[in-house]
Every structure is written in C-alpha cells, then in structure tokens.
Design goal:
Layout lengths: L6 H18 L7 H10 L11 E3 L6 H12 L4 H8 L3 H4 L4 E4 L1
Antiparallel strand pairs: 1-2
C-alpha cells in the first residue's frame, strides 16, 4: 500500500519487469568460474548481519507486565495490547514496533 498501487497493479509491474529482464538477459552467458571469482573478490558484500524486528510493551509496574503477559498467553494481539497498554507513546502508536536491532 505504501507504493500507491493495488495488488493487481503491483503484479502487472512485477510481471513486466520479469519479462523485460528475461528479454534483456536472454543472450547473456555467465560461467561458474566468473561467478566464483566475482564472489571471492566481493565476499564482504554478502556478509549480512542478523537483524531482528523488535516490538515492546512498556508498562509502569511489574503487576501490569504480568497482566499483559497473561493476556498475550490467552491469545490477545500484541499489536492491540501495545496500543492499549504501553506508556511509550511512540512505539505504542505503532503496535509496539521499535524497528530492527
């Protein structure tokens, strides 16, 4: 939705890009030795650190934290609980999302 296109428009764009890519690369031949050589010269580009998407619910007391855990264990939505209970307004408005670490 952030791209301004609906699902069908997105599918059509992806399909057109795949067709164009196939046409433009039809006669390209890359041998295994070239691939291995490129990889060895640029290995640092492929070392991606592990990242985790993190969400929090910040409450003022241990008792409220236990209540939140209890509600989560009963199947409540983390997103909804964060919006309802969290005292951190920035993350609460995003369902507890604080991004990647």
């Amino acid at each position: 939705s952030h791209s301004g296109m609906d699902v069908e428009q997105t599918r059509q764009k992806i399909r057109a890009n795949l067709i164009l890519e196939k046409v433009l690369s039809n006669d390209v031949v890359i041998d295994d030795a070239s691939v291995k050589s490129f990889y060895e010269k640029n290995e640092s580009l492929y070392n991606i650190l592990t990242a985790y998407r993190t969400s929090v619910i910040i409450v003022p007391t241990k008792e409220e934290a236990k209540q939140a855990l209890d509600e989560l264990s009963k199947g409540s939505s983390f997103d909804a609980l964060a919006k309802e209970l969290s005292t951190d307004l920035a993350s609460a408005s995003l369902g507890g999302d604080i991004g990647y670490i």
